């Protein structure tokens, strides 16, 4: 990985997740057919993203690895909490660029490309010749739209997001995204259910707990949920609710142990919990609505219809239908061993193909933009 400097808060909880050298070697092999690696090392890329200990930190780790393994000269600004620290990082970064411009020529006093995850960072715009946004429509606030004219490209993580940002006057193209590979081959799969809601209120957690409360004879449902839920005084024996912090090793084992993953999200910017489930070969349930059904289809998972819609910022929200959710879980329970094996294998195959294609599209898109004359 080519990294010229890293500006990051201490003890980042997610960045160490991508340290496996075998994974790194596999990812580097994926770039063999996209131009010359040495040529890309002359393109300087600045990645700006929140390091929040959750989904955005996963974005940061994935992008840092994909860009670095693609051969670019990479600088990472991992933004944590604290205004004074953030300002000090920015001052230090500007000083490094000034020094580099003085030593290597004026053109080297700016990055070739800024990549900003989720939102536009106005204070970083002038640090690069080209600016790219990788947005999440459901979190993109109306006041952020005023900064869109400073963005040269939107790299959309889903097909669903492309027309949303084109309608706002952006030059948007589908690049896609991937998840961290969570597979542990030595963990035995059990025909039980898993739901990773975390701190989010958009993951369809309440319909799931309501359904399991009506089905005390169903197999175990393990829920990791820190957002509040409406719960009875006591839970049935087939519901395990984890509200405490789990370290990543424990979480990874749970993701692998449970064959069935339940993800009836209302909306997603990409859907790490969906795609991480596919990486372990889980049979994953999702809401049959965009963008969730870009990742999960009935050929490699299980879909449940929605009953009504709403809005959240630029996104449409889709609320899963209770009867459809019950029917979808019943379908999962009725799968025979051969059907389970087929769906699990298709999920893992899709993850591998998507992971490879995303890394290639990202490298190609950055190279094209950095070398564009317009």
How would you briefly describe this protein structure?
The chain is α/β, with parallel strands linked by helices and 374 residues long.
Fold topology:
Elements (H helix, E strand, L loop, with lengths): L2 E5 L13 H9 L7 H4 L3 E7 L4 H15 L3 E7 L3 H22 L6 E8 L9 E8 L17 E4 L4 H6 L5 E3 L15 E9 L6 H9 L7 E5 L13 E4 L5 H10 E6 L8 H8 L3 E5 L4 H4 L6 E3 L1 E7 L2 E6 L1 H13 L2 H35 L3
Parallel strand pairs: 1-3, 2-3, 2-4, 4-5, 5-6, 6-7, 8-9, 8-11, 9-10, 11-12, 12-13
Antiparallel strand pairs: 14-15
Number of strands: 15
Structurally, the number of domains stands at 2
Low-pLDDT windows of residues: 1-15, 21-35
Query: What is the rounded Rg?
Result: 21 Å
Known CATH architecture of the largest domain? 3-Layer(aba) Sandwich
CATH superfamily of the largest domain: Glycogen Phosphorylase B
Give the class from helix and strand content and strand pairing.
alpha/beta
**Biggest pleated sheet:** 7 strands, parallel
Could you explain the architecture of this structure?
The chain has 374 residues and is an alpha/beta fold. The protein folds into two domains: 3-178 and 355-371, Rossmann fold (3-Layer(aba) Sandwich), CATH 3.40.50; 190-353, 3-Layer(aba) Sandwich (Rossmann fold), CATH 3.40.50. The protein has helices at residues 21-29, 37-40, 55-69, 83-104, 161-166, 205-213, 248-257, 272-279, 292-295, 322-334, 337-371; strands spanning 3-7, 44-50, 73-79, 111-118, 128-135, 153-156, 172-174, 190-198, 221-225, 239-242, 258-263, 283-287, 302-304, 306-312, 315-320. A seven-stranded parallel β-sheet has the order 1-3-2-4-5-6-7, with helices on both faces. α9 links the parallel β12 (283-287) and β13 (302-304). The relative contact order is 0.13.
């Amino acid at each position: 990985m080519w990294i010229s400097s890293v500006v990051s808060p201490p003890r980042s909880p997610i960045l160490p997740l991508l340290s496996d050298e075998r994974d790194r070697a596999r990812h580097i092999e994926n770039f063999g057919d996209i131009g010359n690696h040495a040529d890309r090392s002359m393109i300087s890329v600045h990645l700006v993203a929140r390091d929040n200990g959750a989904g955005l930190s996963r974005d940061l780790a994935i992008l840092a690895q994909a860009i670095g393994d693609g051969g670019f000269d990479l600088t990472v600004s991992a933004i944590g909490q604290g205004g004074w620290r953030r300002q000090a990082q920015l001052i230090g970064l500007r000083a490094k660029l000034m020094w580099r411009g003085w030593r290597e020529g004026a053109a080297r006093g700016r990055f070739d490309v800024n990549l900003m995850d989720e939102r536009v960072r106005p204070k970083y715009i002038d640090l690069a010749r080209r600016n790219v946004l990788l947005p999440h429509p459901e979190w993109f606030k109306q006041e952020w739209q005023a900064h869109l004219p400073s963005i040269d490209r939107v790299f959309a993580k889903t097909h669903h997001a492309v027309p949303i940002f084109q309608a706002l006057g952006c030059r948007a193209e589908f690049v896609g995204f991937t998840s961290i590979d969570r597979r542990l081959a030595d963990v035995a799969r059990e025909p039980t259910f898993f739901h990773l809601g975390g701190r989010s209120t958009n993951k369809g957690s309440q319909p799931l707990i309501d359904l399991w409360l009506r089905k005390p004879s169903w197999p175990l449902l393990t829920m990791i949920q820190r957002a509040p839920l409406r719960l009875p005084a006591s839970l049935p024996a087939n519901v395990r609710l984890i509200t405490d912090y789990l370290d990543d090793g424990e979480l990874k084992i749970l993701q692998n142990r449970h064959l069935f993953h339940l993800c009836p999200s209302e909306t997603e910017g990409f859907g790490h919990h969906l795609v991480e489930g596919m990486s372990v070969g889980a049979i994953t349930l999702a809401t049959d609505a965009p963008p969730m059904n870009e990742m999960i289809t009935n050929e490699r998972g299980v879909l449940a219809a929605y009953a009504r819609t709403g809005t959240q910022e630029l996104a449409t929200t889709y609320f899963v239908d209770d009867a459809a959710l019950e029917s979808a879980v019943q379908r999962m329970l009725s799968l025979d061993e051969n059907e389970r094996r087929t769906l699990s294998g298709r999920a893992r195959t899709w993850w591998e193909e998507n992971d490879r294609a995303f890394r290639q599209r990202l490298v190609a898109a950055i190279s094209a933009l950095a070398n564009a004359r317009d």
